[in-house]
Amino acid sequence: VQLQACGGGLVQSGGSLRLSCAPSGGSFSDYAIGWFRQDPGKEREFVGGVDWSGDRRYVVDTVKGRFTISRDNVKEVVYLQMNSLKVEDTAVYYCGADLYGSDRTFTASMYELWGQGTQVTVSS
Questions:
Q1: pLDDT, tens digit, for every residue of 9-44?
Q2: Residues 6+ away with beta carbon under 8 Å from 62
Q3: Which secondary-structure segment (H or E) carries 19?
Q4: 43 φ/ψ angles, rounded to the nearest 5 degrees
């Protein structure tokens, strides 16, 4: 199974984007999905996650109230809806899959699968 993340782009401050993460070559129904972001030269930073069922969702305080995570297990897709974007949200965003994990798997090394990353650029 591989993950594919898409939906990034260039947006002005205050704008919105929706990122998608979907599997290819299999299913990720038993996986928790986490969203991370990374700036060049920095470690991958946990943004939020959703458990396998979609019932448990978590985002970090820095994006709470602006970002939400949802999951559609019929369509096999996880979304990261990003509203009120700020310049400091600029990064490459990745989705990761953690087998039997939770919505709060904060450590990138715990994830077995990763998508290729999608660039989000927020201009002032």
A1: 999 999 999 999 999 888 888 999 999 999 988 999
A2: none
A3: strand 17-24
A4: -75, 160
